[in-house]
Structure formats: structure tokens, C-alpha cells
Amino acid sequence: MPHVDIKYFPRDLSEEQKQALSDDIYAVLNKHLQTKESSLSVALTEVAPEAWKEQVWDPIIQPSLETLVKKPGYSM
């Protein structure tokens, strides 16, 4: 039961664009993990650039750097 939590700088995404993104994420997970669509949940969370370090880098990225499959090309 994958849960995908995407945090990103604010974008003016329409509901249709959000749904298209979710559909694409499902397609990739289905291809690689044979995930059922009914098992997938996707969260899209906008984070202001000035809040990135406090809300994303410090609590999520930095503590997981050693285990991240794709590491960021930046540091804070």
C-alpha cells in the first residue's frame, strides 16, 4: 500500500493537473511494484521556499540522507 507524499514549491496546479500527476505516479508504481490503484494514496503539499529547511529538509531529508535512493543535489 504505497503512500506518496510530494512536497514542492508552490505552483498554480489545476485539479486536472493534480489528477494527471497522480495518474502518472500510479502508472510508475504499477509498472515497478504492481500496485493496485485502490491501494495508492498521494499527498501534494505546497511548501514555501523560505519554509523548506524547517518543514522539509530538517525533519525529513537530512535525517534520511543515508537511505535516500535519490539524494538531492543541494545541501542546507
From TrEMBL:
Keyword Isomerase set for record: yes
InterPro entries the record matches: 4-OT-like_dom, Tautomerase/MIF_sf, Tautomerase_PptA
The EC number(s) this enzyme carries: 5.3.2.-
GO CC annotations, alphabetized: cytoplasm
Keyword field contains Isomerase: yes
GO molecular function terms attached to this record: intramolecular oxidoreductase activity, interconverting keto- and enol-groups
Keyword terms, alphabetized: Isomerase
Gene3D superfamilies per the UniProt record, alphabetical: Macrophage Migration Inhibitory Factor (3.30.429.10)
Superkingdom, taxonomy of origin: Bacteria
Residues in 4-oxalocrotonate tautomerase-like domain copies: 2-52
Active-site positions on this chain: 2
Descriptive protein name: Tautomerase PptA
Organism: Jejubacter calystegiae
